[in-house]
Design a protein that fits this description.
The chain is built from 11 helices and 14 strands. It has 337 residues and is an alpha/beta fold. Helix 5 crosses helix 7.
């Protein structure tokens, strides 16, 4: 290994493929791959840059004491809750994420879910399987209200598509503002209960932080319309699943489409699998054809910036747990120390 070549370690899944398209990085660094805590511990002693390809992995915390030369971690995910443990948060290691890669795909997925609810597609599929010809009326999407919880890039993309479909868009975020071009009126998260009753669709697109964990419990569901549907493409732990089950079983709300869960994969015996009015999907709302090359391309761009001493894209504020930015801003940029 040349003294001028830094070590880049890739933390990959136990059986998944390696990230594609890292050749530009390989020309400028020594790349090592780790698939276990043991191999990660060995690699970390010399690692300056860590690419966490397996974004659900908690292995880094177990071997953090070995990260003596680590300067920068890039997570191939928009959410960083799985890796933002206290020791990392208090360190000088810079953390970046994949903000922006999944925005449009998730927004399209959410709009599809809204249309599926409004147009009764699940009933249509069921009737087709039974070869039953049953005429029904469906709902307009135009004029219904979408309340988007989370004002980052994903929430904004959802807001734009919902608005294009004729929906009234509202949002909940860390900071209130009277008007936003993508999200309409934005209410502070502390006043969530005041706006839940306006929504026909409550769409969670927020990161998991201390402020959002358990945000949707029995009190929140009690404030929603009985005709409202919940869509969660954020993080499972934002929703109290026991409270959600109670709200669905009592018909306190009309339905839910869930792409994320507190425990993933969702256990086979979990009641959400068979509950009427519920759609379960396996954390796939952002996974479009070509997502892996897109994630790699972002890391390659950031690595080349790092080698040139330029500001990095998507720097996470470790105290907040996400990339901060003004309205419409897609990237936070910062130089490594």
């Amino acid at each position: 290994m040349s003294p001028s070549q830094p070590v880049v370690t890739v933390l990959a899944g136990a059986r998944g493929p390696r990230p594609p398209g890292l050749e530009p990085v390989a020309r400028l660094a020594t790349i090592r791959y780790a698939r276990s805590a043991r191999s990660l511990a060995r690699a970390l002693a010399e690692t300056e840059v860590l690419l966490i390809w397996d974004f659900r992995s908690a292995r880094l915390r177990d071997v953090w004491s070995q990260a003596r030369r680590l300067r920068w971690i890039h997570v191939a995910s928009a959410g960083v809750d799985a890796v933002l443990f206290p020791e990392l948060a208090s360190s000088g290691v810079v953390l970046t994420n994949a903000r922006g890669v999944f925005d449009q795909a998730i927004a399209e997925y959410v709009l599809g879910l809204v249309l599926a609810f409004a147009k009764g597609f699940w009933a249509t599929f069921d009737l087709q399987r039974r070869r039953a010809w049953r005429h029904r009326e469906t709902e307009h999407v135009r004029g219904q209200t979408a309340l988007i919880v989370g004002a980052g890039g994903i929430g904004r993309a959802i807001g734009r598509l919902a608005g294009a479909a004729g929906m009234r868009v509202l949002a909940v975020a860390r900071t209130a503002r009277a008007s936003d071009p993508d999200l309409g009126r934005v209410t502070a998260v502390g006043n969530l209960g005041a706006v839940l009753g306006e929504a026909d669709y409550v769409i969670i697109a927020a990161p998991l932080t201390a402020e959002t964990r358990g945000l949707f419990g029995a009190a929140a569901f009690a404030r929603m319309k009985r005709t409202a549907r919940l869509i969660n493409v954020g993080r499972g732990a934002i929703v109290d699943e026991a409270a959600l089950l109670g709200a669905l079983r009592s018909k306190r709300i009309a339905g839910a489409a869930l792409d994320v869960f507190s425990v993933e994969p969702l256990p086979r015996r979990h009641p959400l699998w068979r509950l009427p009015g519920v759609l379960v999907s396996p954390h796939m709302s952002g996974d479009f054809v070509g997502w892996a090359p897109a994630l790699s391309a972002l890391f390659v761009e950031n690595y080349l910036r790092w080698r040139r001493g330029e500001p990095l894209l998507n720097v996470v504020d470790k105290a907040l747990g996400y990339v901060p930015g003004a309205a419409g801003e897609s990237n936070d940029r910062r130089r490594l120390p």
